[in-house]
Design goal:
Number of strands: 17
Shape: rod-shaped
Strand content: 25-35%
Oligomer: single chain
CATH class of the largest domain: Alpha Beta
Strand order of the largest sheet: 3-2-1-4-8
Distance between the termini: 98 Å
CATH topology of the largest domain: Nucleotidyltransferase, domain 5
Helix content: 25-40%
Radius of gyration: 44 Å
């Protein structure tokens, strides 16, 4: 944007507000004016719609300081800044907003430049502009936009009933005409560079009139905007990133599509979790069956299929047939009898006999298993049964053709 809207406010919402529209391309004033108070700010909403807006705060309400640091500036030191400033301020540090500037060196000492103002006062102004839909790109103390002078020279310009002053890089003030002379005598600048007629300025130092640059104060400030990088819009008062026009046009459709895609992903995710849970359960069951069939063998779940094939291949054709036939009969029992859990399986190849050590909920369960297996034409022998708390542990032997 080549056009900028500059708005300067004072300490109170009831004080006059100065504004100016400036073209940085032509360095020309497009429009300017003064509002009686903050209630008339709505008049600037239309002017702010298509321009970059800078808010200038009175230098009387913003204090610039240089804080000496124990080491090179880092983010951890930022958290300690309020404690470093406590002895330099007269109010409660919790009432202040501290904006961080540039780290600098003062001789061999590391320092950080900060700007301090009342937190609620700044929040009140920013809230007011937000309610009026005036988007503030930058917030700067007004006197910081005076041209910087060298060799302890002082820049000054008259605005309203005040003189705005800047001494060096990071020292600003706003002085009243009634007591400004005392301040200047105490400051002792090497010379005074003034951008307004200086009849009222006491002769405390040689004066240098910049008559060619006499202009509206806000016009001078607008020309200096490119030379100052500091911005009070940071931390809790950082400007929200403006949404591009394409997003505002397509936001509703994109949000609806995002919700639909999100729901689809959630449904598929739930299905995947359920299927994964079932797969894990089947894997656990397969491992348990393998351990029962081949006690003492090390189980490798990711190679379980190959392990089973290897074990069966090692049994020999006759053994394989007998063993599988007996285990098939045993597996069929699980679908008919509840609370019957095999613990170990032992196969005697020579006798073609499968010994099952199992636990059940009662003696009658073993009898039921024995009856079912006998109905399937097997020779069944039931060993001793013993109580173990709430369960019964016993042994059943299945014998096939030798």
């Amino acid at each position: 944007m080549t056009e900028k809207l500059v708005i300067r406010v004072d300490q109170s919402h009831q004080k006059p507000i100065h504004w100016l529209v400036f073209s940085s391309a032509d360095e020309q004033i497009i429009a300017s004016g003064e509002l009686d108070n903050a209630e008339q700010l709505e008049q600037l909403s239309e002017k702010a719609a298509s321009r970059e807006v800078t808010l200038l705060l009175s230098a009387s309400q913003v204090q610039l300081k240089r804080v000496v640091l124990p080491t090179k500036w880092n983010r951890k030191l930022e958290q300690a800044l309020p404690f470093m400033l406590e002895e330099q301020i007269a109010c409660d540090v919790d009432e202040l907003f501290i904006a961080v500037g540039q780290p600098v060196m003062d001789g061999e000492k590391h320092c950080i430049e900060v700007a301090i103002c009342n937190k609620q006062w700044l929040k009140g102004w920013l809230t007011l502009f937000s309610e009026l839909d005036i988007e503030l790109t930058r917030v700067i103390p007004d006197a910081l936009l005076l041209p910087e002078q060298q060799d302890n020279a002082l820049s000054m310009i008259e605005l309203g009933q005040q003189w705005l002053c800047r001494l060096g890089h990071w020292h600003i003030s706003a002085i009243e005409k009634s007591w400004g002379a005392d301040y200047l005598y105490a400051l002792q600048p090497s010379r005074i560079v003034h951008y307004s007629p200086a009849e009222g300025i006491p002769d405390v130092a040689p004066k240098e009139a910049k008559e060619a640059e006499y202009d509206l104060p806000l016009a001078l400030f607008a020309k200096q905007l490119g030379n100052v990088s500091f911005n009070l819009r940071q931390g809790v008062f950082a400007a929200k990133k403006k949404q591009p026009q394409w997003w505002r046009d397509w936001r509703s459709g994109l949000l609806a599509a995002s919700i639909a895609v999100g729901c689809f992903v959630v449904v598929k995710g739930v299905q995947l979790v359920v299927l994964q849970k079932q797969a894990d359960d089947f894997k656990t069951q397969a491992v348990a069956v393998y351990q029962q069939a081949f006690p003492g063998k090390v189980v490798r779940p990711h190679l379980l299929k190959k392990q089973i094939e290897g074990e069966l291949a090692g049994l020999g054709s006759a053994e394989q047939g007998g063993f599988l036939k007996l285990t098939n009969h045993l597996v069929a029992v699980f679908g008919e009898v509840e609370n019957f859990t095999p613990e170990t399986l032992r196969y005697d190849r020579r006798r073609n006999e499968l010994r099952i050590r199992a636990r059940a909920s009662g003696f009658q369960v073993f009898g039921q298993v024995k009856a079912i297996l006998e109905q399937r034409g097997l020779e069944v022998q039931q060993g001793s049964l013993n109580n173990d708390g709430d369960v019964v542990i016993g042994e059943i032997r299945l014998r096939g053709d030798a």
